[in-house]
Amino acid sequence: MKKSSLSGNESPRGNEDVEEVVGDNQNVDAVFGQIREGGPNYRNVGWLGTSVLMMKTQIGLGVLSFPVVFDTLGMIPGVLLMLAISGMTLWSNYMVGVFKLNHPDVYGLDDVGERIFGRIGREIFGVIFVLFQIFTAGSAVISVSIALNALSMHATCTAVFVAVAAIASFCLSSIRTLGRISWLAWIGVSCIIVAVLTVTVGVGLQDRPSDAPQEGAWKSDYVLFANPSFTEAISAISTIIFSYAGTGAFFPIVSEMRDPGQYNKALFLCHSVVTVIYVTVGVVVYYYCGSYVASPALGSAGPLIKKVAYGIALPGLMMSAILLSHLASKYMFVRILRGTHHITSNTLVHWSTWLGATFSTALVAYLLASGIPIFGGLVSLAGALLGTFMSFQPMGCMWLYDNWAKGKQNPSLTWRLMVCWSVFMVVIGSFLMIAGTYGSIVGIIDSFKASGGSKAWSCADNSNSV
Which of 9, 359, 381, 404 is the most exposed place for a label (fewest CB within 10 A)? Predict the structure, then answer.
């Protein structure tokens, strides 16, 4: 690995416009430079707001797929695999905070890639981060179109709803700071949690799920252990990874914290809430629905509950598209203007760069949502190809980068174990990324070939076909 000679407070770009962080001067930042009066304050998110933003990068899309994952894997293997991935990504998320405190000039995964692997690493890590956020924003746009179809009883062409979601995402993701977006995250997280709990209660009270045979006796056909093919199993695992793949977004979120030292408090609150909700919703909905669970899961409790749930969830689904589009746009914005006074000043260059970034992100998300309008397939592909890389391999490399040289001089048992763990994270992440991508692509192809499958730029009602 390439050991950088930069100190923790130096900018990789080295531009003279970026002042060094000195003492407790909170008006100067190692990433954004001088925080100027009248300009955007990029260091204004408290630890609670940080935790909610982190939750919103995860809760909103992945939770809607867990019952289907359990149907593929079986309830017991599904829960065990989910808890294993939860533990692995918790360590990865923890490493984000450690690495940020050790290297305050790091803003995103591209900076991590450059520090460890040089210019090539910067470009690869940066492209993967942006693509993942945009792919996930595209998934959110699909989920918003599903909600609008469900609420309006398919009042117009689905392609129109996709366009409406993309336009709304562009407008609201153009809010410049996470501090101002965090209040939207509170609303979004609350709405998603209430919606999925409404469905969870609804499936327990109903006689049978809406997709099950409506005549004769019916009993849930849930299984404790399933027998999936390799392609089905690896695609399901990729969906679990997607549900925890907010890790890459945690770098730009912690960069806008008032006190990055409180990152761990925000992280553990986020991870605890997310995991409890995932287990509760996945197990209960699958237990009552069995193989007749809908994807997304909000459609599993019948037409009335479906409308109620989607009505409650709509702000949360919209917030997912907004936040993920914002993070992708902010990466491009910082990449272009970092080291100049334009980044924190209300100049023409500032605004044209920012709005250009948000428009480009919304446009690509719209094209993805329209071109691959398969909720489960897009979630699985994004989780395998992009989410895995952001949640496993870089974090193993980050620990080795910070600890290899000083530890090998006098290696302790703890150091040796951590070296093995870090290497394991790199290896298992690479395997899951390659295998999961293959499985996801096969699944998408099969969905397009299937009778009644979703079509690109389709007017069909996607609230009933998924």
Answer: 9
